[in-house]
């Protein structure tokens, strides 16, 4: 695999700085390089991150280590003090190394104002110590007296006693609190599963032949693996060092502890506050019944239900220490389930469905799924009692179960990704923390069961993926049809600063927010199906699929290989080496087929003589491409149709842009506009002279950079600025610079019948300051000449020189949540259904967030396709700029009233939009909207553009199996 370390670190530093600006960290920050150097220094320091040991007395006094606190001022605690630079790092970067709990205030560790960063850092630190021989305490772990276990445990009990008192805190943070119990000492607790995984990782890192066993232990741990480790040690004895022998013996000891039968009764006996309560009685009944039935299927089912019962009824128990005891019991139950799940091996479809339902129930009980999400999917997953299901019904069960796995993994990422990104910048081993947490969850066994069901359904429907030679292929899921041929690039890390190429196929953890053209794409975190990246891929026929993290890891060995990649109209996926391509597949690339699809930006009706700032009320759909772009024209149309749900606005038309571009460009003898056209003419001359296309493109990008820089410095004409001030006040009702506004680029290349252009140009959020609005206008005018925008246009446009930007200026609405409506069922394939994706805050769903997504059915009801899993969301303060708030997931984003309002809106749009616009357009619409205190606000409407060629391609049709969805499957069928 290629080395992306430097760009990854740059990205992560950017993320840290962004969070600092939003959460108020000091700007006098320590560089990543310095932190990295400190970490290496602490690893070799016998005191690690600590400088000395002191007694901390009850009265606040601090005494030498050999001078304990006298009885008359209280017992006190003894522990290390941090090095001065460690303390400073917390103040400047909000990074806390080597945290000692007894040295920390409870509220400081809970760290609510920073999305619980310090608590998560404590957990990550514990993980790093396991996988890196103590990490920054490699030598310091032997620094006697630096940490006192009994003091840490006493502190842990006080910590949980405090935070578990608050119902809201527990409700909002159930997953995080429950996970923290694995790491924060509170009376002899442990995390044996994590220790087992970390020990096997350390061994395989030192001794490569152990890798296969490590993979087995990480993905499918079974008691039989203990003997495999013993046999491995015997077989490789001649090659093993004394240290490796000790590590293997330690792993065997840990595995014996892990697979030792879980004694829930012993834990209940020590949980004296729980005994005799409603939940305590349920636990006792479970223990009694289990004694008479040790069948794995029975144990998994009953354990899963008890996990759910504890979560659902936990708030009925008001005593914080009793809640702590119940959560400890919950963790033991999860261990019990983890031990027994591999031993339940269903031999029928019904049994497989039952196991999937039970494991999903357990995922809810363990906090990986929210209770409201379980309400949405439980009916679909509870059909194992039926005698038969159609292939369509069985496929829906599979899709729902697969979603449960994805949502569970997304919960882990939503909680920890921010901290992991921060630490990975200076400690790369941090990156594996999220994977470790997922592998230690119920989702591990759920994913395996779903994969087995997927394999069965693939055979029954002939909808089989063919992805190299990797395992668990049923977790691949096609999103957009298309085909591609090129080098495969597998990016296991941040993608934001990866320089992509239009002739390569990319596998990402998460696609970059400003993705440039690529040949093909697949992502672990698909974001949502209506993000700008997804819409562009769909528009251009770029094959696009979702896959699991395990799939990505399996594909890493093919990084750099040339491959053929295709996604069919039904979503099956092909990825194979160049050598295995058929003659038909090679024929697809003999000529550049997409060049024949290029279109021309219509300029015949453009009115460049209009140089007045316009009231948005005075434009409508007929002005699109004439006075302004479709955003302003269509929003003006919506203002006529829905006057109470659309804000006021003003429009800076094409003519004002062209008027300014006709000025002489500084340092040149030509105008800005002439400079642009000379560049395009020279590019055509170069092509005529057989200059290689990369050289032509490089010339154009250099010239565009010069033009873009000049536009940003362009002086605005006084007449225009005067108009802007006057119209601002008369239309928006306030002085220029007193109301925050959005500046939305609105070009004539957007929303053409064959090209969407979604998200290619600049939108400025919530700009208040007068000078910033003036500068923002020039920034928006310059944005069509960025590399990304230009490259996407070049794919489709014959006359890219005739791209004109207008600007839509509208007041900000600080919505509670926002998103996108597509007036067709993208997932269902039914043109009468609706697709809706929403995220909390402003700008929801369009930039690839993990959004709450539904199919709303035309007849009745809806289906949850994905819940929101974004930890932070945008707010639009009245003072301008954007703020960030922390999201929790215990409640859904859209409520029932919102869903009804969206359905009514879609009906009105379908019925009235063509008539109101005198259009013959019969396709679906893409609508951006939001809700503020349950009132619906409309921000944009555009045609929903799909790539008709990809959908109708003869090749894609040939690899799309004909599925008899009405075929009935007996659930007693052997699997």
Automatic annotation (TrEMBL):
Gene3D superfamilies, sorted: ATP-grasp fold, A domain (3.30.1490.20), ATP-grasp fold, B domain (3.30.470.20), Phosphohistidine domain (3.50.30.10)
Record-listed E.C. numbers: 2.7.9.2
Catalytic activity, as annotated: pyruvate + ATP + H2O = phosphoenolpyruvate + AMP + phosphate + 2 H(+)
Enzyme class: transferase
Cofactor(s) recorded in Swiss-Prot or TrEMBL: Mg(2+)
Organism domain of life: Bacteria
Domain called Pyruvate phosphate dikinase AMP/ATP-binding: residue spans: 628-949
Pathway(s) of this molecule: Carbohydrate biosynthesis; gluconeogenesis
Entry keyword set: ATP-binding, Kinase, Magnesium, Metal-binding, Nucleotide-binding, Pyruvate, Transferase
Signal sequence bounds: none
PANTHER family linked: PHOSPHOENOLPYRUVATE SYNTHASE
Family: Belongs to the PEP-utilizing enzyme family.
Stated role: Catalyzes the phosphorylation of pyruvate to phosphoenolpyruvate.
Protein name: Phosphoenolpyruvate synthase
Lineage: Bacteria, Pseudomonadati, Bacteroidota, Flavobacteriia, Flavobacteriales
């Amino acid at each position: 695999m290629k080395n992306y370390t430097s760009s990854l670190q740059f990205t992560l530093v950017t993320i840290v700085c962004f969070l600092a600006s939003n959460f108020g960290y000091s700007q006098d920050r320590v560089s990543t390089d310095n932190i990295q150097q400190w970490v290496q220094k602490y690893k070799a320091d016998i005191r690690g991150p600590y400088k000395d040991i002191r007694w901390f007395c009850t009265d606040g006094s601090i005494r030498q280590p050999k001078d304990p606190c006298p009885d008359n001022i209280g017992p006190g605690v003894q522990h290390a003090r941090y090095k001065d630079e460690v303390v400073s790092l917390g103040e400047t970067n909000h990074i806390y190394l080597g945290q000692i709990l007894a040295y920390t205030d409870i509220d400081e560790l809970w760290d609510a104002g920073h999305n619980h960063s310090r608590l998560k850092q404590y957990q990550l630190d514990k993980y790093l110590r396991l996988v890196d021989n103590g990490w920054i305490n490699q030598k310091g772990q032997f620094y006697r007296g630096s940490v006192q276990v009994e003091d840490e445990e006493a502190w842990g009990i006080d910590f949980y006693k405090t935070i578990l008192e608050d119902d809201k805190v527990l409700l909002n943070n159930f997953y995080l609190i429950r996970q923290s119990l694995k790491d924060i000492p509170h009376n002899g607790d442990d995390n044996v599963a994590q220790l087992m995984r970390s020990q096997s990782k350390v061994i395989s890192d030192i001794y490569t032949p152990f890798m296969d066993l490590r993979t087995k232990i990480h993905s499918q741990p079974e008691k039989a693996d203990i003997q495999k480790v013993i046999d491995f040690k015997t077989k490789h004895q001649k090659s093993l060092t004394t240290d490796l022998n000790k590590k293997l013996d330690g792993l065997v000891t840990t595995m014996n502890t892990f697979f030792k039968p879980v004694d829930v009764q012993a834990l209940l006996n020590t949980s004296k506050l729980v005994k005799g309560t409603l939940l305590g009685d349920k636990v006792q009944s479970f223990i009694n019944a289990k004694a008479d039935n040790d069948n794995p299927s029975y144990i998994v089912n009953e354990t899963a239900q008890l996990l759910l019962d504890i979560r659902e009824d936990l708030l009925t128990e008001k005593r914080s220490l009793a809640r702590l005891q119940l959560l400890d019991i919950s963790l033991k139950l999860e261990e019990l389930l983890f031990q027994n799940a591999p031993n339940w091996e269903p031999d029928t479809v019904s049994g497989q469905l039952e196991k999937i339902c039970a494991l999903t129930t357990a995922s809810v009980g363990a906090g990986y799924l929210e209770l409201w999400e379980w309400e949405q999917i439980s009916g679909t997953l509870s059909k194992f009692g039926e005698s038969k299901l159609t292939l369509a019904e069985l496929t829906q069960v599979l899709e729902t179960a697969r979603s449960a796995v994805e949502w569970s993994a997304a919960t882990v990422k939503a909680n920890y990704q921010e901290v992991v990104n921060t630490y990975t910048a200076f400690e790369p081993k941090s990156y594996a923390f999220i994977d470790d947490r997922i592998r230690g969850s119920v989702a591990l066994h759920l994913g395996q069961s779903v994969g087995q069901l997927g394999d069965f359904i693939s055979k029954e429907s002939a909808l089989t993926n063919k992805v190299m030679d990797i395992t668990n292929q049923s977790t691949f899921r096609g999103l957009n049809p298309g085909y591609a041929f090129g080098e495969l690039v597998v990016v296991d890390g941040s993608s934001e600063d990866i320089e992509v190429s239009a002739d390569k196929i990319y596998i990402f953890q998460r696609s970059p927010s400003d993705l440039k053209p690529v040949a093909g794409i697949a992502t672990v975190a698909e974001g949502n199906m209506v993000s700008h990246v997804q819409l562009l891929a769909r528009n251009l026929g770029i094959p696009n699929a979702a896959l699991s993290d395990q799939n990505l890891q399996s594909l890493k060995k093919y990084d750099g290989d040339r491959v053929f990649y295709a996604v069919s109209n039904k979503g099956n996926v092909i990825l194979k080496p160049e050598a295995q391509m058929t003659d038909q597949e090679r024929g697809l690339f003999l000529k550049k087929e997409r060049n024949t699809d290029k279109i021309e930006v219509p300029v015949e009706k453009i009115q460049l003589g209009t140089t007045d700032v316009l009231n948005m009320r005075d434009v409508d759909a007929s002005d699109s491409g004439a006075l302004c772009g479709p955003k302003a024209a269509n929003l003006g149309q919506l203002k006529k149709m829905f006057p109470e749900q659309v804000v006021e606005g003003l429009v800076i038309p094409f003519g004002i842009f062209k008027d300014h571009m006709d000025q002489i460009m500084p340092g040149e003898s030509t105008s800005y506009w002439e400079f642009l056209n000379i560049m395009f003419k020279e590019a055509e001359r170069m092509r005529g002279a057989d200059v290689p296309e990369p050289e032509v493109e490089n010339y154009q990008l250099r010239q565009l950079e010069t033009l873009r820089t000049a536009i940003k410095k362009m002086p605005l004409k006084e007449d225009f600025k005067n108009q802007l001030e006057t119209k601002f006040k008369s239309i928006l009702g306030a002085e220029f610079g007193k109301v925050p506004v959005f500046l939305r680029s609105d070009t004539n290349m957007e929303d053409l019948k064959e090209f969407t252009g979604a998200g290619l140009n600049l939108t400025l959020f919530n700009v208040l300051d007068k000078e910033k609005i003036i500068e923002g206008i020039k920034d928006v005018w310059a944005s069509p000449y960025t590399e990304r925008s230009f490259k996407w246009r070049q794919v489709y446009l014959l006359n890219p020189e005739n791209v004109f930007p207008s600007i839509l200026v509208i007041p900000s609405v600080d919505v509670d949540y926002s998103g996108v409506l597509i007036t067709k069922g993208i997932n269902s394939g039914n043109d009468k259904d609706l697709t809706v994706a929403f995220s909390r805050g402003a700008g929801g769903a369009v930039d690839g967030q993990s959004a709450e997504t539904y199919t709303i059915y035309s007849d009745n009801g809806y289906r949850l396709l994905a819940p929101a899993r974004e930890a932070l969301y945008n707010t639009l303060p009245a003072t301008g700029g954007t703020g960030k708030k922390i999201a929790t997931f215990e409640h859904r984003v859209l409520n029932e009233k919102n869903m009804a309002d969206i359905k009514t809106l879609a009906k009105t749009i379908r019925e009235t939009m063509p008539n109101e616009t005198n259009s013959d357009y019969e396709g679906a619409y893409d609508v951006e909207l939001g809700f503020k205190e349950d009132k619906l606000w409309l921000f944009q409407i555009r045609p929903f553009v799909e790539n008709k060629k990809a959908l109708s391609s003869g090749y894609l049709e040939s690899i799309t199996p004909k599925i008899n969805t009405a075929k009935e499957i007996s659930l007693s069928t052997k699997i």
